[in-house]
Amino acid sequence: MTSRAAADLAALHPRLPSPLQEIPDERFTRHGLRLLLKRDDLIHPELIGNKWRKLAPNLEAAAGRTIVTFGGAYSNHLRATAAAGRLLGLPTVGVVRGQELADRPLNPSLARCAADGMRLHFVDRSTYRRKTEPETLAAILRAVAADDAHVVPEGGSNSLAVRGCRALGEELRGHADVVAVACGTGGTLAGLAAGLDPGQRALGIPVLRGGFLSADTQALQEQAFGARRGTWSLDDRFHFGGYARSTPELDAFAEDFAHRHGVPVERLYVAKLLYGLVALADEGTFPRGTTIAAIITGRPFPTRP
Length: 305
Description:
alpha/beta, 2 domains, Rossmann fold, 12 helices, four-stranded parallel beta sheet, single chain
């Protein structure tokens, strides 16, 4: 960390700790449950939620160097990194999965990245799958002329990010029995669980299919802390077909929740989290008297043209 980098981040005036809001919702109260919303979507207007918590330590480590990172065509992480680059005057490169996308008009998400000054570099899907292999990564860095770059993995989840997300758990100590978060790469869950008190547990709701996140989350904790930390588990049933996938039922649920409580519901992550919690409450998963905190990690953004 450099004092200049830390000062630049402080000048962005993040709202920390983020607000904790109790929501009276009869779908929970009828089961004797309390629902709290941890409003990480209010941390910063552009570096929203877990993106702030994961990016801030990486921005400090970059110390003015180009940031090269990875994502799909609708990546929240790419948008947040591009915004950070604009706000802090840092060059950013987004390596995007899908060479075929290079010949198409940019979707709203990638257009936002480009408008914020991010250089977009499209690679074929086979190369993207091998992006963590040293030879493939070196070739990508040569192609974008960024050999001295600070590389941030897909979703922003590395040991720096995981340690940054530990503060999220620390902010929730003493406030909830179960803390739930939607998961993409497992980094937020890994840090969150490490920051909670021993009597609390973290619940992850994956938004991708595959059932691979348990091993990934544990590996991230081992990289960041040397061992598995905290009490955490995953429920893989609420991905609705995979990342950026939805159904009319989920869309209706999100609109209804927003109408009931005046809270904008982001579709890629937050809607699936809240839907999953309502379903788990109906299943009797949580004992009466349980207080549940749901992490609101983002705000709505167009996901499809």
